[in-house]
């Protein structure tokens, strides 16, 4: 929308949940990853970032609000995104020299390991790209804000290729299949804690690169084949294989976090109990029907197909009663035999 001289743009952007994790950077400044990663982008109906940006010749200084609180504009990642956008813009644009007012909000807990920075930077960069008329791929700009943000620039199933160029311009995200390709796919988020993480992913992966031997092994020998195999499983809609790779990859990321020195412990006893419940459910069903994956926090993201949702949610509610989130301490079932028949 244009009013007088000011220009205002509002965008929303979704969260993405990685099934092959981005963990470790080759370049800390450019946010070039050690390995490729792959994720599913959620619908903006439930978890999303929303950003409104105004540029106007009457603004005296740049301002930035996140969830209603004013933030410092002196932020390297924000600055890198802005610089790259302005570098690609038509240099004749008068608005290039105007000040900005940025107002961003998430409708889910921020910095709790629920990909808030991914949605946030994807949203910010989309809005900036509209304001400054940028064309072409902008996922490499979103990447400069937060690595995983580049994957939120596309819907459906998205592959972030680490690229080979030193300037990171080919470190971009690409959609491998739209959401409509697998319409029965659902994501359940079990919020174990909505508090701020002890240490963020940036810090955790930096320490991992410095101290873990497993991290380089993973990037070199494990991830390339996993990306190939999971892409194939997605193309064939083979949930059993998709789920196995997803869970193994989450476990490997957290194994690296433990191999980091001092270790980064993101999963809690409740997270492990959820993973145990998923394995018990899958073995009771005879094949993988639910897949868990954990980011840099204790909350579980579960991929499952629509026909499974009702039964699995009722089991989760039985094992972890909402009014008693620590309920599993008083009797976490060791196998599906401990779940009453009428729950299933
Ligand atoms: C565990 O994108 O938050 O969610 O690039 O340092 O901002 P920075 O890290 P960030 O890392 C996310 C890591 C992850 C796994 C993933 O989403 O692939």
Automatic annotation (TrEMBL):
Pfam families: MDD_C (PF18376), MVD-like_N (PF22700)
Gene3D superfamilies membership: 3.30.230.10, GHMP kinase, C-terminal domain
InterPro entries: GHMP_kinase_C_sf, Mev_decarb, Mev_diP_decarb, MVD-like_N, Mvd1_C, Ribosomal_Su5_D2-typ_SF, Ribsml_uS5_D2-typ_fold_subgr
Top-rank lineage group of the source organism: Eukaryota
Single GO term (MF): diphosphomevalonate decarboxylase activity
All copies of domain Mvd1 C-terminal, residue ranges: 187-344
Recorded metabolic or biological pathway in which this protein acts: Steroid biosynthesis; cholesterol biosynthesis
GO cellular component terms attached to this protein's record: cytosol
Segments forming domain Diphosphomevalonate decarboxylase-like N-terminal: 13-173
GO biological process: cholesterol biosynthetic process; isopentenyl diphosphate biosynthetic process, mevalonate pathway
Alphabetically ordered keywords of this record: ATP-binding, Cholesterol biosynthesis, Cholesterol metabolism, Lipid biosynthesis, Lipid metabolism, Lyase, Nucleotide-binding, Steroid biosynthesis, Steroid metabolism, Sterol biosynthesis, Sterol metabolism
Summary of the function given for this chain in its UniProt record: Catalyzes the ATP dependent decarboxylation of (R)-5-diphosphomevalonate to form isopentenyl diphosphate (IPP). Functions in the mevalonate (MVA) pathway leading to isopentenyl diphosphate (IPP), a key precursor for the biosynthesis of isoprenoids and sterol synthesis.
Name the record gives this protein: Diphosphomevalonate decarboxylase
The species this protein was found in: Aromia moschata
